[in-house]
Amino acid sequence: MNTFKYSNTNKRYHTLDYFYKEKFKSKVFKVSLNAGFTCPNIDGTVGFGGCIYCSKSGSGEFAGDITKSLEEQFITIRDMMLKKWPKAKYIGYFQAHSNTYDKVDNLRKMYDIILKQDNVIGLSIATRADCITEECLDYLEELNKKTFLTIELGLQTTNEKTSKLINRCHSLECFKDMVEKLRKRNINVVVHIINGLPYETKEDMLETVKYLNKLDIQGIKIHMLSILKDTPLAKLYQTKPFKILSKEEYIDIVISQLELLREEIVIHRITGDPKVEDLIEPTWLIKKVSLINDIDKEMVRRNTYQGKKLVKEKQLYPKLFFSFH
User: With bands split at pLDDT 50, 70 and 90, how would you rate the model's confidence at 321?
Assistant: First the structure.
């Protein structure tokens, strides 16, 4: 018997794997791509240097090899993943930097390269709230009618003081406005947040999730802050050391966040996945599978699940709750 509604395993939160299998009746995996985009807070449009935690590649994860064409990147990663899941379908994941930060004609050419590949059933496009023009919104609406489209917006935190420190260079209001614009066009929105940002408390991190839970979002990615070599964050950590969450603290915060999220919100990621050779701290992030297993075990021990803290509130204050469609 499954404890959690959106699960066919022992998970007590709404996993992306479960969502894909329910929607597409198949295993689906993302093919991470690097299309060579930049960001407005790198090129000087709104700021310089990018977010302080961001590596030169634009991601602490495993995006595609920029020295290869998009098609070559796609084929290389797809073939590698097919060894594990030979009957899977794929979503092209434009991951590094801000992947709508260009003219629509150029975006169309790049996205079409991936959409024409066999068994591609959708696109996931990572970007910033200030990098989607009205013209781009029109194109994304058109694209959304042709394929399964998800726009991933980096927020990281609702704390404006922290946002300024990490050099996000856009406001919370800008983010909220873009979520609303995308949803008016029925485009799925996934939001990135980071736990363990410099000088933030557990309550700060919970406030970020409480805020997002009130918005019409379809998914969330939860990351642990990675301090990577050759980043402004690494320099800050060396000159003004700040507390790094322990593995146990991270597990506690993530579970507390999950309890506050509506059960239909899909958890696309529950931890970061930094390159080992670039990672300074926290070293416990290297053992990703162990961390995910420990989160599962602790949720069982606590007899909790995604949205648990909302159940009593919904019973007490039903008029405050509503469903997103």
Answer: very low
Give the predicted TM-score (pTM) of the model: 0.92
CB 15 within 8 A of CB 299: no
Q: Tokens for 6?
A: 């959106």
Separation of alpha carbons 157 and 152, rounded Å: 15
Could you give all domains of the chain from N- to C-terminal order, each with its CATH number?
A: 16-320 (3.80.30.30)
Residue 318 has pLDDT above 60, yes or no: no
In terms of phi and psi (left: phi > 0; alpha: psi -120 to 50; beta: otherwise), the region of 199 is left
pLDDT mean over 185-193: 98
Burial 211-245 (b: 16+ CB within 10 A, else e): bbbebebbbbbbbbbbbbeebebbebbeeeeeebb
Please return the burial class of 55, using the count of CB atoms within 10 Å of its CB with bins 0-12, 13-18 and 19+.
Answer: buried
> Could you give the angle at the alpha carbon of 110 between the alpha carbons of 109 and 114, nearest 5°?
110
- Directed axis angle between helix 247-260 and helix 202-213, to 10°? 30
Listing DSSP states for 227-275 in one string gives EETTSHHHHHHHHS--PPPPHHHHHHHHHHHHHHS-TTSEEEESS----
CA angle centred on 57, ends 52 and 58, rounded to 5°: 50
